[in-house]
């Protein structure tokens, strides 16, 4: 019998107890789940729908070229476009911008868009201006 005790003592412990490891992973999983839900709740409470907050820069109220005869295009909140104070239909906007560029090829196009206007609408007007030949464009902003 004394030999049996020596064999048991020299035997290699071959089992790994994974219960504590599983407990640690489950605790970490719960912590990450709670943290992610808190981040989503904080983002939705602050008005961010996609979790990213974008702070747009404020515009300055300086004149780019005082005394210059610029072409002014305004996009109103309801989507109407005004060219030099006169309402222009979308279909004839490119032609009118082309005529304004031929009259004053050195003029800069100043784009004034209401805050509520969709970004796509502003980009569409900018594309019409580029097609008409305007190479310089300024976007009007509110002073600080």
Can you put this structure into words, describing what you see?
The protein is α/β, with parallel strands linked by helices. It has two domains: 44 residues; 69 residues, Nucleotidyltransferase, domain 5. It is built from four helices and five strands; from the N terminus they run ααβββαβαβ. The N and C termini lie far apart (94 Å).
Notable characteristics:
144 residues; alpha/beta; Nucleotidyltransferase, domain 5; 2 domains; five-stranded mixed beta sheet; 4 helices
Indicate the CATH architecture of the largest domain: 2-Layer Sandwich
Unreliable runs, pLDDT <50, ≥5 residues? 48-57
CATH classification, class level of the largest domain: Alpha Beta
| Gyration radius over CA | 33 Å
Annotation field: number of helices = 4
Strand order of the largest sheet: 3-2-1-4-5
Shape: rod-shaped
CATH topology of the largest domain: Nucleotidyltransferase, domain 5
The computed structural class is alpha/beta
Helix content: 40-55%
Task: Find the count of extended strands (DSSP E, 2+ residues).
Answer: 5
**Ends apart, CA distance between termini:** 94 Å
Q: What fraction of residues sit in β-strands?
A: 5-15%
């Amino acid at each position: 019998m004394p030999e049996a005790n020596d064999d048991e003592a020299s035997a290699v412990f071959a089992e790994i107890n994974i219960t504590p490891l599983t407990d640690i992973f489950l605790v970490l999983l719960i912590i990450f789940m709670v943290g992610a839900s808190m981040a989503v709740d904080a983002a939705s409470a602050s008005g961010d729908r996609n979790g990213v907050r974008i702070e747009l820069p404020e515009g300055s109220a300086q004149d780019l070229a005082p005394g210059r005869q610029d072409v002014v295009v305004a996009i109103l909140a309801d989507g109407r476009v005004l060219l030099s104070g006169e309402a222009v239909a979308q279909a004839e906007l490119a032609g009118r911008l082309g005529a304004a560029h031929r009259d004053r090829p050195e003029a800069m196009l100043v784009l004034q868009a209401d805050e509520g206007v969709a970004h796509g609408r502003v980009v569409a007007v900018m594309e019409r201006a580029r097609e008409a030949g305007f190479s310089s464009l300024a976007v009007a902003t509110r002073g600080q």
